[in-house]
Amino acid sequence: MKRRVWIAAALLFAVSPLAAAQDARDEPALAGAPSPDAERLSSRDLSRWLQGKPPKPGATPAAGRYSGDDTCQWANDGECDDPGIGTGACERGTDYSDCWRIVEGVEDNSCRWANDGECDEPGFGTGACTQATDLNDCGEIIHLRFRNDSCEAAFDGVCNEPGVGDGTCAERTDRADCTGRDRPMGINDHYFGHDDRVFMDTSVFPWSVIGQVDFDAGGACTATLIADTVLITASHCISEDGRLDARGVFRTAYAREGGPLEARVIDYFNSPDWDEERFSSTDDLDGTDWALLRIDRPLGAELGHVGARGLIDTAGAQRALEAELFQAGYSWDTGTHLSGNLGCHIVEVFNDNTMAHNCDTTRGDSGSPFMVREGDEYFIVATDSNFRSNPGGPMIYIATRSEGWLPYLDDFIAGRIGNDSPRPRGPGKPPK
Ligand SMILES: [Ca+2]
Ligand SMILES: [Ca+2]
Ligand SMILES: [Ca+2]
Ligand SMILES: [Ca+2]
After folding, report:
1. Cα of 52 to ligand 2 centre, how many Å?
2. How far apart, in whole angstroms, are the C-alpha atoms of residue 311 and residue 323?
3. How far apart, in Å, are the Cα atoms of 252 and each of 249, 264, 294?
């Protein structure tokens, strides 16, 4: 066993829209190409790079061989951080051990976790292997590395990256349109073989009430207004090192005329059965991965809010499987945009208050809502939780069903329960 994989990683990797925009500005030119220190690119190298393929080994003259050291603070974390090739978090040449394979086009199976049926690269996999050392398991991710869909013109069906398209997108920010939507099965960025996400208009309900909480303790998760002053998100978003801390700022309706609205999180209530340690080490407590948050301004009175429904309790498991789901969240790879799915489905209902789904979700989507629609009304039936490793098969994506928190909702809205109140003994039994 390497370790359990869960979307709590989103806490480490989630980026605020501001930070993402900053990253985009910092992107180097001709990103992903061999080091500019190397010989000038041949047209063949350039065309291979544009197709997402690394230069052939040996294509770079020895005089231009990549060299350097591991003095960067992000050295040896398994991810190449060299500017022009990787994330750009390190000075050029100071992340040598993580970068040299990618620069020289050496994709191999040298990791000890190679050929175990699970992708172990950072980002796309468990992170147990260095990039480019788990080739057979990670498959065709070469053209996905260091690219995203953060451009304003992403997901519009036209490649807008410079060189290939009209250049209205920065390098490497219009991935789906420039490299296609097919995705390998079994990677953590899980699109079930195909990325079907679209951008949502956050000036329009219900997308206007799906926002993001930037936590004071670090990290960010998606959260949704379900009452004038109440949000629903995932418990793992407010839990770290055995402590619960929900303090943070909720921002929503980014595209609203007049700008986004924001409020402070001032209280929370999560499952009495929540246990971070057990959640992180087993699959036993996924049904408790929910948290109600209270904010200090009635944004729901201004913007409206969605409803909540126990879909399995009210419709039964069979009809629930047929329901069209609407999901949206602040995925790590779509920049400042709210991205999501129109018409994905529950694929299995579990008795522990969870369900598996086929909605395209990734890091940053933690806490994001799965909704059903009735006319103009939307009802949250679950929130995004984690994914389960499934060697030999695609990852299993787990959402926490609303049935778990519905019994507490009225009491939390009314202020009868919360972080400063004693725990109720059970559903519907708040303390006197
Ligand atoms: Ca690194
Ligand atoms: Ca592997
Ligand atoms: Ca585009
Ligand atoms: Ca898909």
Report:
1. 21
2. 9
3. 10, 12, 15
- Residue 232 structure tokens: 């629903």
Residues, beta carbon < 5 Å, ion ligand 4:
191-192, 194, 196, 360
CB 373 within 8 A of CB 343: no
Å from CA of 174 to ligand 3 middle = 5
Rounded to whole angstroms, how far apart are CA atoms 65 and 100? 9
Distance (Å, whole) CA 189 – CA 395: 10
CA of 181 to the centre of ligand 3 (A): 12
Joined tokens for residue 181? 């939507």
Class of the CATH domain delimited by 179-420:
mainly beta
Q: Which residues pair with 190 in a beta bridge?
A: 361
Task: Give the burial class of 386: count Cβ atoms within 10 A of its Cβ; 0-12 exposed, 13-18 middle, 19 or more buried.
Answer: buried
Element housing 49 (H / E): helix 43-50
- What single-letter amino acid sits at 52? G
Q: Compute, in angstroms, the gap from residue 186 CA to the centroid of ligand 2.
A: 10
CB of 249 closer than 8 Å to CB of 214: yes
What is the 8-class DSSP label of residue 365? -
Domain map (residue ranges) of the chain: 179-420
The Cα 307–Cα 426 span in angstroms is: 23
Phi and psi angles of residue 345, each rounded to the nearest 5 degrees, phi first = -140, 160
- Whole-structure pTM value: 0.80
Burial of 323 (0-12, 13-18, 19+ CB in 10 A): middle
Taking the C-alpha atoms of residue 129 and residue 123, their distance in angstroms, rounded to an integer, is 11
pLDDT one-digit tens code per residue, 152-170: 999 999 999 999 999 999 9
The ligand that comes nearest to the alpha carbon of residue 358 is 4
Asked whether the beta carbons of 221 and 270 are under 8 A apart, the reply is no
Query: Quick one: DSSP state of residue 381?
Result: E
Nearest alpha-carbon partner for 148 in 300, 336, 5? 336
Give the DSSP per-residue string, 20-35. HHHHHHHPPTTTTSSP
DSSP assignments along 267-306, one per residue: EEEE-TT--HHHHHH-STTGGG--EEEEESS-HHHHH---
The pLDDT tens digits of the residues spanning 56-101 come to 343 343 445 789 999 999 999 999 999 888 889 999 999 999 999 9
